[in-house]
Amino acid sequence: ASGGRNQGLAAFGAQMPAVRDLLEQNAGRFKKLPVGPVGAYINIRNKEWGLAIEQAIGNGVMHSFIVDSHDDRHQFEKLMAQHRVQHVPQVLVMRHDTNPYSIAESSLPDASFTRMIDEISFSHPMAQQACVDRSKVESSILVADRKEGTEIMFSKHAPPPRNVGKAFAKDGYAYSVRDGIQMTDYPTVDASRRKLGVDVREQVAALEAQVDEKRQEFLACQSASKEIVAAANQFERRAKEIGKQMKSARQQVQTATRLLDDIAAEGGLQEQSVEDQLEEARQLDKEAEGQLQKAEQLRDEMREKERLIPDLQRQMTELKTDADALMKSQEEAANLINEAFRAKQKAGKRLELSRKAVTAIEDKRSAGVAHVEELKATAADARDAATNALPSGMEPPDVTGQKIDALQHKLERWKKKRKQTKNVAASALDEAVLKGSLDEAQAVLNDQETRRSNVIADKDALEKARKKRSKQWGKDRRSMSEEASKSFDEQMRLRNLAGQLNFDHNNEDHKSTLQIMVKTSSVDESSNETTNVQSLSGGERSFTTMAFQIALWTFMDVPFRCMDEFDVFMDDTFRRQAVNSLLQACDRTQSGQFLFLTPQDMSSMLDNDNRTRHIFKMPDPRED
Hints:
By secondary structure, the chain is an alpha/beta fold. The protein has helices at residues 2-10, 16-25, 50-57, 59-62, 70-82, 125-135, 146-153, 200-266, 271-329, 334-388, 404-428, 431-493, 538-553, 572-588, and strands spanning 42-44, 65-67, 91-93, 114-115, 120-122, 140-143, 166-169, 174-178, 181-185, 498-504, 513-519, 529-530, 560-564, 593-597.
């Protein structure tokens, strides 16, 4: 029974079961236990009228709670704040009555119409009173389609039927006439997210089918991500092979360098040996260029793989958007959607690891290019050294007419002589100095590598913290905007008005806008609304300004708050309500001082106030 009860409440918001339990646990704090959400006490007799009836009642009434007095409303808001309820439901103040309204037949539409009040049953009398007082369901009729609605309400030959305020079609369109003006209201309720006249099990089954579809899309995206990871691994293996080839080339260059050093120590060589050394240097240069070309090819292949990453990211973003929409549409399927969301987060982490692997491979490629440049420089130095090793003015030996055996004999003698010279030169080298220079250079290299790693780690940590704070700031900004708009509307409803603050948070702060919307009636859905505050009367404009300031005080932690001549354009009714609102705002604030300056007499406004207030009255002007 509890599960079914919570399931029904959750249709009006994920937090509703917890709010209802919280109210029942603290029933002693209220004169009468709040009733709500109102929609939970509404049943319709024919499901085909569900969308039209939900459109007529409105989400504002269906999601609200009804309290018996303003003191109970204060206790309700205080209880929600103490338990940090994020989305506090709207509160309606109506004197609780155990008997439903008795509506006379003469005040209802003709029985030949399908009357909305006849198609609704209420399990609590306060739900009926709220729908009658706030939504005017007793004066609404139901029609089959839009054509019938226009024929009844917009007839050229006759006025709208007696006691009929609005006609609602099955698809949610509403037709009415006000002050001789024909008005058509478009549906604002999403048919897929209705709460009245729907089978929750059917909605859950539909959501499960959507979740399965999104899961298949996610698996396809995950497969593509695995292919990229495999390509990255293959790229890394190729990079290792290139590193081995570069190492071999470096060893060959070192061998060539030692030979050139031996030649320089010998002081002279034959032309043929110089050409051999030059040929070896050219060969090393060609090998280095080949390695560079391979590195370029690998870089091109890696760029092709990187082009796939934005597509995967877009697919991930689309999956996340769809999953969030499913979570909001029906809370009963929250477990399945959360499972899909967690799987998507894992895929995002894997994609992030793939991106990091790609970055590491790119770093290795850059290091490989740097090594190739070093090899090219070494080969160039070897080529220059071989050229300079030939003594100035020395002509190549003339071997014309000499036999091959004689030339081979000379070559053997030269090799023996070079070996002897090499042994003598090697013994003369100061190995300690060379080793010390090598160790010093290696220490400098290690220190630079450590610094580089630390800088990269700090950069990544700062970037992660920045993104996290930016995301949290965006959430806080949206939450505060909603809270400010709700507080503004609550203040306006104290004078039977309604209002809304529309914040447009653009990415650039200087382009963000704020629009104030005011409706002249909080109970009549067809009342006039305006975004131009100057078009209101003096009292309405002053009260709107005061309500706007009270809504913003919640987010302003300052020691002093001052208002000057806030009531000069208000009549006594507006002034009394404005003063009560300001005093309630003072009581809700634990710290700070409030200064209200007015030329009016405030003593009569505090007759029923039992708190200590200080009124400072200026002395009358002197006549001299």
